[in-house]
Design brief:
47% of the residues lie in helices and 18% in strands. It is an alpha/beta fold. An eight-stranded mixed sheet has the order 1-2-4-3-5-6-7-8, sandwiched between helices. One of its GO terms (molecular function) is catalytic activity.
Amino acid sequence: MSAVSVDGLSIAYDDEGSAGAPVVVLVHGHPFDRSMWRPQVERLVEAGRRVIVPDLRGYGESAVVPGKTPLAAFAHDIIELLDQLGVERFALGGLSMGGQIVMELHRQVADRIRGLLLADTAPWPETPDGRRTRNEVADRLLREGMRPYAEEVLPKMVAPATIERLPAVAEHVLGMMLGTSPEGAAAALRGRAERPDYAESLSRAKVPALIVVGSEDEYTPVDDARQMHELIPDSTLVVVDGAGHMPNLECPEAFDQALLAFLDAL
């Protein structure tokens, strides 16, 4: 693990692969950490890529910032990290909240991005009901801690069939959630409740995009992915059969095959 200081905050990250190789940056979702990308990091490095995976502020081994963390703050941290590493151009991917952070990065620094991976995510702003729910969940995390929430949402994060078929994956996902700071997770939820609409900026994307979604995803269903596919000019849609909200862990072979084919074509 390495770390950089961004505005006085410690941002942890892994940077693996050859220094001169094409760079791929992967952004984790909520309430996880950079270890959710471990299968992809190993596969991409084997395929000759340099892979950079940060822990977002409030998650993993990065600094915890209570209050409210908007998506723009996460994007700022990643830009600062890449600037300190001397990385100018990169392919960029994210899952769920990580995908929305990718959309914010695309809005800010589109000219630095070679291609977009948008997994189990959606570009639209939060609804009034969604804003209320996210703030209520933030309050709950601060009041109860992570365990009750984590155990409740596990069957939505990964498909119930995955829990039966791949218990180690379910344990990893649950462990990431239990290891997350309630303060950091709550701050992210409050910021995400106020996220902007990314549909307009994505509709003008000038780079290819790979949209991946699990067929059993309850949080961002296949219909959301199809609408995003129609929105983004040069996009490819891959539906991972049998996966829930985390196809990269539930069905890594299918996910990695789609991702490598996409990166090879850039």
